[in-house]
User: Fold these one by one.
Assistant:
Number 1:
Amino acid sequence: MKFMNGLSEILKSSSYKKFSSIIDANKLNHAYLFCSPDEEYNNYFCKVVALKLICEKFEPCFNCDDCKKFLSNFHPDVLEYPKGPSLLVSDSSSIIENAEIKPMLANYKIFIINNFDKSTQQAQNKLLKTLEESPNNVIFLLNSTNTDNILQTIKSRTQIFKLEPLSMQSVLNFYKSQNIVVSDIALEMGEGWLGKTLNLTSGNFKECYDFVLKLVNEMKNSKVIINFAPIFAKKENFLINLTILQELMEEILYINLGLKENEQIKSAEEFKVEAISEIFDLIDNAKKQFKANVNTNLITDFLLFKILEVKYKWNIKK
Ligand SMILES: [Zn+2]
């Protein structure tokens, strides 16, 4: 089972070891909210925790009946929500109903609720009482990339557990087990997050990288920006382009501090350290606007012209 080899990488992570010791010390709470910036990792992490809780050997061993049932996606005591893109009141009703039914095979009845921050307020409210006084042996494993949209009343009824990224070797092994080849640069830029690394691997990453590198090298006047902007703004590549831009700016920072060399970047000396720090803020802001559904052409124009301005401003300063 390929999936299993991948999951075993997560068992090596510092976050898993930490959480696993809580279980082993019998200090398990009935509701957790796992947080990291990576949706995929959040989900895999909850799956591994669920496996440990239902495994006959309490490990996970990937080999006992319970582990096997779970890995084939039909363990009756582990239920995953939401059924659609986000948790709705109907999902909450179904959770409340199912929580009343005793576990059939394992010691626990486990509810994995993904992307809890995307749940409607009504769905969250409906779960409050169950989260507070959950039936015996029921464990809630919620996860989220952003706790801002989660009701304070929910947060106070769960234990928040922040996840650390995996080692790059683990990410590499995880995808190798699924026959997915991850490029070095995607691995480095993915920073140990499973989903981010995969996103950077898929599609036209190489093309985007060459394009953004060219932009950074040639970004000397507004005419260049007018030419590059429409391609940069293409919606399907926009986030990848932003991430690459951020990564290249980091490279330039290291080059200028004398900590790194990169012959591909020819414009490093044009970016002063102070300028780069302002550019990081601009890129962060652009990501936020993208999440808020602002038009990518508008974001790109503002971002690129502003970078040019910042670069110029710090170059004429003595
Ligand atoms: Zn097992």
Note: The first strand starts at residue 31 and ends at 35.
Number 2:
Amino acid sequence: MEPSRDNPLIRFSAFWWGISVISLFGVLVLILWLRSGGNSGIEPLEQAAAIKRYEVRASIDAAQKASLDSWKVVEEGSTVQVPPTAAFEMVGAQLIASKPSKIEDPAQVIPNTPTAEKLAGGPSADYAAVDALTPAEGTAPDAALLAKGEQGYLLCAACHGPDGKGVQAGDITVGPPLAGSEWVTGPVSNLIRIQMRGLTGPITVAGKVYNPAAPMTAMGAASSDEDVAAVLTYVRNSFGNSAPPVLPEQVKALRSEIGKPALTEADLIPVK
Ligand code: HEC
């Protein structure tokens, strides 16, 4: 063995160099751990905000679940219990499956994006002409259309409640009431445009101002003219409401609204 390799001094210093490097690393990890809050009970700001979000989310989930638990839907003539989460799972799966792609179809435009703003500058449909097509007061809705609308309402019920009385999570509005809403029995063009573009910001329903936690999403693009007409006819003739049916051709005439920014109350034809 060469004497220089077996120098006890070199061994001694190598040992302490090793120990120092390892402890330095340990101190670094300790500093990082303390900076991230340690276990002192003090949450970094970001985490504290997330906790609040999770609390709000949990209260909304609980309110929706409670409101949907008793929900039944008519299917092929018989009434069957539908799991309350089924509708959300379906929508969730569709959202996850969607990929960003070049926008060619207005139905794919997301409200409030630059593309939507550009589209908003386009010509708007003749709302008065659409409202003029509404059947006369007292026209009874078709029974088959109503039954179809009742099924379609399952999705609306998540936010507006099976009884149309709205869903509240404490003082947070998930969805305002449709029962007794002057918007529901008012001009049909308002209702169709809400389906095509969504609705955001405060809204007054039956004399009460609602400030929803999240806007109503545009849902009409994914449904046929018939399905939209059916669900709107259903809400106009349920929960104590009564108004003439909505026609598929009225829905068709307002498809050009798809892709435009979400509506606010000021964009609607005033009611009462
Ligand atoms: C994700 C929750 C959600 C779903 C699902 C939903 N809405 Fe809404 N809806 C809202 C919210 C929130 C508002 C109020 C939006 C605002 O003003 O900010 C609203 C407003 C409305 C309004 C106008 C205000 C009123 O209370 O009269 C109508 C009409 C309406 N929705 C109909 C429907 C119909 C019909 C469906 C089913 C096809 C539906 N909504 C599904 C959340 C929802």
Note: The radius of gyration is 29 Å.
Number 3:
Amino acid sequence: MLDLAIVFVVGLSVGSFLNVCIARLPENKSIVKPSSFCPHCKKAINWYDNIPVLSYLFLMGKCRFCKKRISIVYPAVELITAFVLLFLYNQFGLSLDLFKYGILFILLIVVSFIDIKYHAIPAYLCILGISLAVFLSLISTIKAIKQGGVDLGLLPVVITVKNLIFGLGFAYLFKLFGDFFMGIYLGFQKKDSIEGETESLGLGDVDFMGMIGAFLGVKAVILVFFLAPFVALAYTVFALIFKKSHLIPYLPYLSIATFIVFVWGNNIWNFIL
Ligand SMILES: [Zn+2]
């Protein structure tokens, strides 16, 4: 029980750091210095006002100095991170898998919230994820070779690179098809874009699917790709009911779909077949 509490508190602190990344990475600012400050009045935030979730509740969502609203996104990111890490710890214990999938979902949280805020993601985040996945598969490969008797084609690093190429290729193929049909549609409509979009899928989405392939494999790529539109549809219905009209970019849907596939992927796959 104590270990779960520790993981949860560590998760909240990681989430707090992710908030800094989400706010600063897209603006190419340092994530180390300066320490946190209020985005409205720029006053430095005291450590006791910077405790994950609790400070938000205690201050009732307002800055101590200027009393302007603090975005609900901050505690949300902290709670999501804590629950995801708790879930992973429960599944894998303290292990290389916990570390591997922890990195994946931390990156998904960061790219999703950056995409919501800026409608774009820094390309290096997915490249970083892909590099880490390949690096971790190298560690597993060294372990496998030491144990001996493994087929070269079944070495973790070979499988990871194959899955990476599949993810990139699969998404890029759909991008080409999508762009082709979108081009025809825009030609007929004599327009340049659909609500500002000129491409069916951005290259960021392609990198993202490469990352999903490298971490989770071929089945996950296919399932995530076809599940994400349903997640988007569910949100759209929700938004219509609650009259929240603003459009959300695609990466958050892909990330939610990834989590669903991570938890229930085998069930979904068996159900479809
Ligand atoms: Zn303030």
Note: The chain has a mean pLDDT of 89.
